[in-house]
Amino acid sequence: MVKQTIQIFARVKPPVRKHQQGIYSIDEDEKLIPSLEIILPRDLADGFVNNKRESYKFKFQRIFDQDANQETIFENIAKPVAGSVLAGYNGTIFAYGQTGSGKTFTITGGAERYSDRGIIPRTLSYIFEQLQKDSSKIYTTHISYLEIYNECGYDLLDPRHEASSLEDLPKVTILEDPDQNIHLKNLTLHLATTEEEALNLLFLGDTNRMIAETPMNQASTRSHCIFTIHLSSKEPGSATVRHAKLHLVDLAGSERVAKTGVGGHLLTEAKYINLSLHYLEQVIIALSEKHRSHIPYRNSMMTSVLRDSLGGNCMTTMIATLSLEKRNLDESISTCRFAQRVALIKNEAVLNEEIDPRLVIKRLQKEIQELKDELAMVTGEQRTEALTEAELLQLEKLITSFLEDQDPESRLEVGADMRKVHHCFHHLKKLLNDKKILENNTVSSESKDQDCQEPLKEEEYRKLRDILKQRDNEINILVNMLKKEKKKAQEALHLAGMDRREFRHSQSPPFRLGNPEEGQRMRLSSAPSQAQDFSILGKRSSLLHKKIGMREEMSLGRQEAFEIFKRDHADSVTIDDNKQILKQRFSEAKALGESINEARSKIGHLKEEITQRHIQQVALGISENMAVPLMPDQQEEKLRSQLEEEKRRYKTMFTRLKALKVEIEHLQLLMDKAKVKLQKEFEVWWAEEATNLQVNSPAVNSLDHTKPFLQTSDSQHERSQLLSNKSDVNARKILPSPCPSPHSQKQSSTSTPLEDSIPKTPVSSIPLTGDSQTDSDIIAFIKARQSILQKQCLGSN
Ligand code: ADP
Ligand code: MG
User: Fold this and answer.
1) Which of 81, 280, 333, 760 has CB 3.0 to 4.6 Å from 91, enough for a Cys bridge?
2) Last residue of a domain, one of 357, 391, 415
């Protein structure tokens, strides 16, 4: 058992605007516990925070200042926890702090750069690397991803996510067994055998979370996400299985309701969040106070799920994320205060070992059989029932392998069952007799041959010799013909081969790289000694591709609008940058793959040369009557050192290629996610534009009368979507959106002088196709284009 208090760390986020001096200081004297001092500027101390103190000091295990990178965070915070999970203990890492303080950045990572990947992808990488190294145990890894929003649990990996909104999914519910163990109903566990598979699941969950999010339901700041790695391990042959869970938790923003300053529905939500975090606080207060017998875990879903992590069987770590800017100081102070309480909680982690009943049954059955045999021997009891067919077959197999075993020490183990012993003797006797008969037959047939030969006359003998000679000649001629044919074929092949060498060369290497943009399959070698192809993108394409494939279903007008939207979107720069990096990485991987192939064939040649050299030396030794050449062969030594050098080179390149492969996979997933985000934002914007068009355009209004705009089921669906998105437009006013939302209502209803200068296509003069869906697409597109043009003109002025 390991007793440990919850470890607390602090991480300060780099400021968005330029650094404000003198707000905080970090004291990291090696002999003392590190402390963070938050200094309130006078203006704040006098008014906003209602007391006279001007500075607050908080102790942490370690404090990571703005410049700490993701690697440092992983090495210092997550790696030790992952290590204990590999040893069989439960672990939890949770990030706590106000919205925007860097919780998601710390737990999952940034959305742009590979170097910004957070604790989850790095931990997955580390765990799978360790599992690969340890061949003494059999490991199984499962992943689950739970989101808790407004006290309801949702499975982010539920395959039905594609079809439904968050609220339509079956809720994950908590069940408690008589031993008070928590079970989560409707939360799927997904087997992940490789790092890539696990990473795909992470991105799938994140993408699902993003898709479910609407401006009204900003789940990312108001929900808690728990990514769990379930690890089981077992030694081969042992019936004991170890289970360990690692929860990586991105909590909802810890800001207070008063500060969010919103009303209505959003206030209800904010209260909920506070309620949920409030219950977390209550649990933590109860745990940090001695002599409290009742801990109110059951009050909320999150505390129920994390019961073991808080004061139970788990090694838990908290990261307090801080955005130490002037306007956030009160929130930062309350985050630190929360952390100080958390640090008082003691956990007791034990190894979670369980006996696998199936394996125990097998072992016990064998033991019973052995004991029965022994008993029968001791008591002299005769067992009379005949051996079964299967038992007989098994015995005969044992005898065969016993006879074939060259080891003089090998034994024929049949236990103490006399029936089996007897059967073995019988069988051996039979084998022996069979062999004798066979030998006799051979001997007699040989002697018969001899008998036949004796009366052969001299003349017949000569005849046979002539025939033999004839046959020999025939064979020689045929062999010569064959040789000639073979030579011809080789020459022809060689000529053709020279022409096609380029082509063949590109086909033969095991390193085939797809086009990075297409996200095709990439095959890389996986073991230094043996070329083994594997695909890194199989699952990714099937899971995420469906989501980015939505565009193919768009009408042409919409597609064109999408292109323009994309071009103007801030994220497109990131996507393009990543595309460039991806291209570079791909060509680097390709070049590396080729060098690896070269190195491999060089290694093969060197090995061949060494063998040849060795044979020559031995032959030389024999011809000179020496068993082993006395002098070490310098040429061979040289070849060997060359071989070693080549092997080293191969290994270095291989390691680099492996790292590249992970990077490429990650970048592709980041890009896929960014594309889904872009598309989603486009849909929202498109709907807004279409709604405005309906409200403001007389052409469309008249279209509405003359052509049944809403008759097809598709357009009905579109309309209901549009209508439902109207509320989004309102919500957007409260929550600014990053998308280039060229709204709209004012611009399209009232004309400014600037607008007049922009050439407009009168909507009513557009030749319509008669298809209401396409028509509305075209009109909406033209409107959208005008609106973008206006925006651009405004920007350039
Ligand atoms: P939270 O999840 O707490 O609401 P985020 O993780 O989304 O906050 O961070 C808000 C923004 O700040 C994001 O754009 C993120 O990339 C950025 N950010 C957060 N922490 C860091 C950091 N340590 N270094 C650089 N950027 C950061
Ligand atoms: Mg977040």
Assistant:
1) 81
2) 357
